[in-house]
Automatic annotation (TrEMBL):
Gene3D superfamilies: 3.30.70.270. Its EC number is 2.7.7.65. GO terms for molecular function: diguanylate cyclase activity. GO terms for cellular component: plasma membrane. The gene is adrA_1. It is an enzyme of class 2 (transferase). It holds the Pfam family GGDEF. This is Putative diguanylate cyclase AdrA. Residues 208-337 form the GGDEF domain. One of its GO terms (biological process) is negative regulation of bacterial-type flagellum-dependent cell motility. Keywords: Nucleotidyltransferase, Transferase.
């Protein structure tokens, strides 16, 4: 005999899966996963943990649904937030994650009257994350089968979407992904500015400032002309790996086109930002590239000001890059400093009305 509850919920699940696979933003797909599985399992809170390349937790998404009743009308308050995982992951959760990793299957832990239940999430046959929730009973075989089915659809679609947003040669995020992430970052910065003004508070353990840098391989055309495009491609791949190793896991690196890269880093002040970009420049300068020998990069960077359009911030970083090229290459300049020195003239630009 069929389960009425499962049968009646199946069309809803299929509809949610259809909605999830219509999304073109990987971050929103992760949110959609939580919004799909929470109601299915009858829980108001779910969590998603995305792993970094080293198996550590890169970020966590928390989804909560709260039922409010006002003047006899019930409504559901739906909220998703990304939190700093350093303080939010408990010892119980770490132990549960480790059990899931070692066994390669879902596990649960009894905590008081509740069960903490965790499922592994795989991508390209590798563990890429965890799905976690709490409730007062174990998952039924039917629920377990549906959860596995939803997770499989999610991972297959996420991998497909992620591939479409990456450069085929270097594996870096591409220009299309940059546009999506810039919109998200600017929304985050604008919301944080409002929060700081209205509440006179700041979030704990979150950076105050982001910086956008445009980096370019010096004399790359000469490398292609002298050694051929195969060697040129190898240089691009090696520069990518060196940049990735010099930046932190939380920083974002994109191939902007040709031999140009864009890096978005978090740093609380200008000195910290200068150190981060200099670390990348020096690492490449000191590396001995096969056949070619030593090469260098030049760059320019600017503060990611939420009151200025993202494209204008890119233009500011780009103009600083050209100033670095004119000054002799193998250096990275800050836009604001160049304006103060009179090297660049600040021009009126499109802005975002925050108030």
């Amino acid at each position: 005999m069929s389960n009425p509850r499962t049968d009646s919920g199946l069309p809803s699940v299929l509809k949610k899966l259809g909605a999830m696979t219509a999304i073109r933003d990987t971050y929103l797909v992760e949110q959609s996963l939580l919004r799909t599985l929470g109601p299915l399992l009858g829980v108001l809170e779910t969590s998603f943990y995305r792993l970094d390349d080293n198996g550590g937790i890169a970020r966590a998404l928390y989804h909560s649904r709260k039922v409010e009743q006002k003047e006899g009308v019930k409504r559901i308050i739906d909220n998703i937030e990304e939190v700093a995982v350093g303080q939010e992951v408990t010892d119980t959760e770490r132990n549960l994650f480790e059990s899931v990793r070692l066994l390669g299957k879902s596990c649960s832990r009894k905590v008081g009257s509740d069960l903490h239940i965790c499922y592994p999430i795989y991508g390209n046959s590798e563990l890429v994350g965890y799905f976690l929730f709490q409730r007062d009973r174990e998952v039924t075989p039917v629920e377990d089968a549906i959860v596995h089915g939803v997770l499989e659809v999610f991972t297959n679609y996420f991998d497909l979407l992620d591939t479409s947003q990456r450069d085929q040669l270097t594996g870096l995020l591409n220009r299309y992904s940059l546009e999506i992430n810039l919109d998200r970052l600017w929304n985050l910065l604008s919301a944080r500015l409002h929060e700081s003004i209205e509440e006179n508070t700041k979030r704990i353990n979150t950076p105050d400032t982001y910086w956008l840098g445009v980096l370019d391989i010096d004399h790359f055309k000469n490398i292609n002309d002298t050694y051929g495009h195969v060697i040129g491609d190898e240089i691009l791949i090696m520069v990518t790996r060196l940049l990735q190793s010099s930046l932190r896991q939380s920083d974002l690196l994109y191939r902007y086109g040709g031999e140009e890269f864009i890096a978005i880093i978090a740093a609380n002040d200008l000195d910290s930002a200068i150190q981060a970009f200099e670390r990348a420049r020096v690492k490449i300068e000191q590396f001995q590239f096969p056949q070619v020998g030593h090469i260098t990069i030049s760059g320019g960077f600017s503060n990611a000001d939420p009151g200025v359009l993202p494209q204008e911030v890119i233009n500011r970083a780009d103009s600083s890059l050209y100033a670095a090229k004119d000054a002799g290459r193998n250096r990275i300049f800050h836009y604001g400093t160049l304006v103060k020195q009179g090297v660049l003239k600040e021009t009126p630009s499109g802005s975002i009305d925050l108030f």
